[in-house]
Amino acid sequence: MEQAQVPNLIFPRGEHYAFFYEDTHLLMLVFERDARRYLFLVRETDGATVELDFPGDLYESQVRDAVDRIFFVELQEEEESAKRLVLGACFPVADVWYGAFYERGGDERALFFLRVIGSGELAALEAVEATEEHERVATAFYDRYRDVLALT
């Protein structure tokens, strides 16, 4: 069966955010005004076309439970204005979960690593401040995603 040609789709009030949950490439479509979020699997992308698929109810529920509370956060650094961050990847390092965040509307290559504490409605984030831990997490991030992201 041949797949029908799909026209360009535009959601004028929606914002889309691609991210990774472990090794799965996902896209969150967010309608802020209506407080709605939709999750899709990114099956393939060639730069001009992105093929999306529904991940299934169970998988969507598991991922949403892990990331909904931490997907958008504000990071307050000493004597600086708060940075509005969005999740770029959520991944484990030696049984501890971390998020790689980038600034909304900013340079997606400037990452902030935060440790994920708890899950679901109780999920919280802690800054990765120890140099050794930061190096370990940054290396794990690079090793896991270097083939799928433009990492330098």
Pick out the low-confidence regions. none
Overall pLDDT confidence: 87
Report how far the terminal alpha carbons are from each other.
41 Å
Query: Fraction of residues in helices?
Result: 10-25%
Q: What order do the SSEs take from the amino end to the carboxyl end, as H and E?
A: EEEEHEEEEEH
Radius of gyration: 16 Å
Instruction: Count all strands and give the number.
Output: 9
- What is the approximate shape? globular
Largest sheet: 9 strands, mixed
Query: Tally the helices: what do you get?
Result: 2
- Share of residues in strands: 35-45%
**Structural class of the helix and strand makeup?**
alpha+beta
Question: TL;DR?
Answer:
By secondary structure, the chain is of the alpha+beta class. Helices cover 17% and strands 41% of the residues. Strands 1, 2, 3, 4, 5, 6, 7, 8 and 9 form a nine-stranded mixed β-sheet that branches.
How is the secondary structure organized here?
Layout: E1 15-21, E2 24-31, E3 36-45, E4 50-53, H1 57-67, E5 72-75, E6 83-93, E7 96-103, E8 111-117, E9 124-127, H2 131-145
Parallel strand pairs: 1-6
Antiparallel strand pairs: 1-2, 2-3, 3-4, 5-6, 6-7, 7-8, 8-9
